[in-house]
Each structure stands twice: as C-alpha cells, then as structure tokens.
C-alpha cells in the first residue's frame, strides 16, 4: 500500500467532511502521529519519520461513520488515536492517511453502581472523579492516568494500578461491552458483548473503531500511599509477594524498585535513603495495621506516607510506577530502556533471584505484582542499560529460555509485542469488518503475513 498522500486530494477530502473538525498543519499532524515509542532505541529509527496526512476529530458516532465511509471509498489508511500515551508505536501511522483523534468524543453516557458507559475520548482521571461521586472508581488504570483516554487504554493497554486485585483487561469481566464502527464497503455500528469484546480488546485499533464502552467499576476505598524501603532487594521482592498474597489486606498497587531506580525519582530523593530498594504501595487505610506487621516481618521501614485526604493533591506515587518508572529513569539517563516480563508464578521467586544475580546493574529489577487468569504473578518492567540490539535480544532470550514471557516493547507489531502468536479471533474479525486492511495497517502480523 502506498502512502495515501501520493494520490489523495486532501482539500477535496476536507470539503467532503463538511463541518467535521480537521487539522492539516504539518507540525501539528506530526505531533499527533507520535506516542512514546522513543522509550525504545530499536523503534526510534523505524518510526521517527512516520506521520499521517491529516488529523480528523469527530464529535459523534455519526461523524465517525462519515469518516469511515470516505476512507473506504478512497482506500485511505485510518489510524485511531487516543491521547498517544502508548510506548511502542501503537498509534503511529505506518502508511500515512487519516489520524482519527477521538479526544472530542468524551461524554460519560451513564453510570450506575458498578458500571459506567462512556465514549472513548473520556480521560481516565475525569471518569474516576465522576464515578467517585457515587462511591465507585475505575478497577484499573495505567500510570498515565491523568492524560490517557479510556479508548486508548482498551485499545493499547493491558493492566495497571488495580491489577493486583482485578487482574488484566483481558480477564473475564473487565470489559463488558463496546460499540464499534466497521470499515466495510458500507460502514456500520456493531455492538460486542461478553466474550466478543476480545475481538477488539488490545488490538491497537487494527480491526474496528471503538465509539462507546461499558466498563465495570470497583468500590471506592480510602487509599493511603506509602513508600517502604529495604536494605536487600530480595527482601523487598518477597515482601511484595507476601503483601500481594495477603487477600485480607485491601490494596491497589504493589510496586518494587531495586536500587538505583529510586534515585531517579527526584521528588523522593531526600526521602528514600541512597542505595536502598523501595516498595511503592497503595493500601486502604483500614488495612494499615496488618500492613505494618508485614513490613516489620521483612525488615522494611516506612519512609513516606500520604493520607487519603492528601492523595488528592500534589505528587502521587502512581506516576512513579508501571511505565512511568521508565519515564523517570530515562529523564536522568536517556540511554536506558526497558523490558516487559511476566515471571512465572513462584512462591520462592527463584527466577527473579537468578536474574537479579546474573544481570546485576545491566537489567535493574522493577516488579509490578498483578493477578491474571486467577493467579498471582510478578511482572517485570525492568530498566535495561542498552548497548546494542544483539545484546538486548540475548537478554530477552535468557528470560524466555527460563519460562518467563517477554511482551516485547521494542516492536510495533501487535502479536510480537504480545503472546508471539496470531490471534485468530482478532484476525478473522478484521477480515470481516476491515476487508481492505485500512485500519492501522502494518501492525497486525496475521494480516500482513496473509497478504
């Protein structure tokens, strides 16, 4: 497929859009064609010159249908965009064309105890603020909570703060329904419910345009933020595992950072002792007493604590966990990169101990404890001192040879950054509802390989 700009009259295209808002300024278009792929030194040269030709900002489902129809009629590639907070080029257009920015579709359609219906452009923090008014909150969200949109999270995310209790987005019950605009010859709206939501969940917008979602909510607890320090990393890791397994302690975040990662957290430099490991936690205030006992059992010390009332203002530890940990590390040393690893469930954390001892300062351990498929796992978002691609691949192979799963953040291909196999359910859905392959082309290996 050639770039759409080679054959498309964009003035004519805009005229056909009528009142639908567009952006054609080259600087703005280039900016809205990017995400945080620069975390990867492998992706930087591959994606840095990739841009769309025009940005379209629909305000309604009917406007999305109109854009879809025009793209189908002229065979124009279309890449859906939320807030662009992804880390591996999920929303970067490889073939030019239309960037469909969904940020103007930001209405909360309805909410009730335990469930909310929203448009894809709703920001996660804004949704959380509204649902808290009725005593409920989002089950999980990424560290980009303040700026990310719900549509972008479903399309490109997998889990986050809250996954220690509720699992990942792909776990049953974490996405109730989606409305999707297709790119058939005559685009239409279809609704997916139950298991059918997996057709579109974490598909990078390659097989449909999400226009509405129903997501489950969790009861609001009075959350306290804490930082606990440890002299030894494995003490910190085993504490994280023990806390995660303590079902009676209500928690939302268990993040373990080996030294020197805490030194990259500038607001906490005078709080976290130099050279120590840190556990960043969100725990319900009512669970603080048993938590303190657990901390004592693993020779930890609380160096920072923020009450529920204080967490609504100022610095939040959320923005130092998950992929924000990498962001802060790279702000100090841009040569650093990262991995995304699902370690096997193991009460003794043997593989984590092995990797910590073997790699030393080359692969610095950062663990996020989560549940997935009903089981507790430590997930690594390790900070890597990058030397070259061959060495990075050796590090990945070392982990995979020992039973860890690497969700490779150094590829923009959907399957290669996931379970390394073609998802036939999503591929079949694309073949039916995007038969020309116009949606985010080049990202789904199953489609590319089948030509």
UniProtKB/TrEMBL annotation:
It comes from the Bacteria. PROSITE patterns: FAD_PCMH (PS51387). InterPro entries: FAD-bd_PCMH, FAD-bd_PCMH-like_sf, FAD-bd_PCMH_sub2, FAD-linked_Oxase-like_C, Oxid_FAD_bind_N. Keywords: FAD, Flavoprotein. Pfam families: FAD_binding_4 (PF01565). Residues 48-220 form the FAD-binding PCMH-type domain. Gene3D superfamilies: 3.30.465.10. PANTHER family: D-2-HYDROXYGLUTARATE DEHYDROGENASE, D-LACTATE DEHYDROGENASE. This is FAD-binding PCMH-type domain-containing protein.
């Amino acid at each position: 497929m050639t770039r759409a700009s080679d054959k498309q009259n964009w003035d004519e295209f805009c005229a056909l859009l009528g009142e639908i808002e567009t952006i054609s300024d080259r600087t703005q278009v280039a900016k809205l064609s990017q995400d945080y792929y620069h975390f990867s030194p492998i992706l930087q040269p591959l994606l840095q010159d990739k841009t769309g030709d025009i940005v379209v900002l629909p305000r309604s489902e009917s406007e999305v249908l109109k854009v879809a129809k025009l793209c189908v009629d002229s065979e124009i590639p279309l890449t859906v965009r939320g807030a662009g907070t992804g880390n591996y080029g999920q929303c970067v257009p490889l073939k030019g064309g239309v960037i469909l920015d969904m940020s103007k579709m930001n209405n909360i359609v309805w909410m009730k105890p335990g469930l909310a219906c929203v448009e894809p452009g709703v920001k996660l923090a804004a949704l959380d603020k509204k649902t808290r008014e009725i005593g409920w909150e989002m089950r999980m969200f990424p560290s980009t909570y303040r700026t990310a949109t719900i549509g972008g999270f479903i399309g490109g995310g997998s889990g986050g703060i809250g996954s220690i209790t509720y699992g990942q987005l792909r776990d049953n019950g974490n996405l109730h329904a989606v409305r999707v605009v297709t790119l058939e010859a005559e685009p239409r709206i279809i609704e997916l419910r139950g298991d059918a939501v997996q057709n579109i969940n974490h598909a990078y917008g390659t097989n449909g345009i999400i226009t509405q979602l129903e997501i489950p909510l969790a009861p609001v607890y009075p959350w306290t933020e804490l930082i606990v320090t440890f002299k030894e990393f494995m003490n910190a890791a085993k504490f994280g595992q023990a806390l995660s397994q303590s079902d009676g302690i209500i928690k939302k975040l268990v993040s373990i950072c080996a030294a020197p990662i805490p030194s990259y957290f500038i607001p906490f430099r005078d709080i976290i002792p130099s050279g120590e490991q840190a556990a960043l936690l969100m725990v319900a205030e009512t669970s603080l007493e048993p938590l303190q006992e657990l901390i004592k059992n693993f020779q930890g010390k609380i160096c920072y604590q923020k009450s529920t009332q204080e967490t609504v203002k100022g610095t939040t530890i959320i923005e130092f966990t998950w992929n924000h940990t990498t962001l802060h590390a790279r702000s100090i040393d841009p040569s650093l990169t990262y991995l995304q690893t699902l370690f096997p469930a193991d009460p003794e954390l043997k593989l984590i101990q092995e990797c910590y001892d073997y790699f030393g300062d080359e692969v610095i351990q950062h663990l996020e404890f989560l549940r997935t498929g009903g089981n507790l796992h430590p997930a690594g978002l390790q900070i890597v001192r990058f030397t070259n691609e061959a060495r990075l691949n050796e590090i990945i192979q070392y982990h995979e040879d020992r039973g860890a799963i690497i969700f490779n953040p150094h590829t923009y291909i959907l399957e290669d950054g996931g379970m390394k196999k073609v998802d036939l359910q999503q591929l079949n859905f694309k073949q039916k509802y995007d038969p020309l392959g116009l949606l985010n082309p080049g990202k789904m290996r199953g489609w590319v390989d089948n030509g």
